[in-house]
Amino acid sequence: MYYADRFFNYKAATLLSIPIIAITIWFSMVVSAQPELMIKVAEENKKGMMLVSINQKMSDTILDHGLGWLPNDIIWKHIWDNNVNFQKGWRESYLRTILSLRESLSRQDRSTSPLNKDVEKGYGHLSINPESWIFPSYEGQMNDANDSLEVYKNDLGSGKAGFYTRADSLVRLIEQYTSLLGSVTNTLDITTFFDRDDRFYFAKGVTWGIYNNMVVISSEFEDVLADNGGNEITQSIINELSHAYFEPLVVLDNERGSMFNSHLIHQKAALLAARQKMNSLSSILLHKGAPSQG
Question: Which one, 22, 97, 173, 246, has least CB within 10 Å?
């Protein structure tokens, strides 16, 4: 009787553990996983529309993926902190892209042209505290930003708004990215057991945002890049960024020469290579030919 009870208890425990394991696997694969590297958007007939669309689509992907926006969540942000840091990293790249759109890409002349009111609204919505939970919620502000950018995009289509593919404007956007990558790679230098995951996933979120924007930039600024001999190095930048986007089972930060690879060293090397090539691209655009308007 004793052994029968033990066998029954063992079977009961096994049966009960199956759904728990299944739920754990589902959360790990679906909820906690980050999006695929490349986000695709349709070709547009007016310059600037693709750049707006890719950022809108990344924003929607974040909101629709897994548990949605996590940095302001009361409970889940303490459990799925990898995704929290990924989303915060992506937000930094998004903010810098829309900042460049506000300051230069949507203005014919930075010193005399007024700011586009809809791009300005979009940037304002995104600039609030990402941990704001209510009154307003950050999710609501992301949706409002997308709505404002949609108005701007529609105005591009109808010719009421402008998007200026000048070499100097592209350089300003690239400088935003190189500055961000410089800050990110510095954080990967010295880590502890408790913060290496945070830094890895923040950098991964930054990578996701910049990668998708650079893919679109290669199309939006195709003529400027071709005129200045920048197409090849732009594709090389995109390739380096793709090497920084990977998902380890456990984030390791070992010394060089260790039998185990250091994911932080690998990630940093790819991001530094991308940053160096971005600086080279900026030099090419600044020193080869005068700015041209597309």
Answer: 22
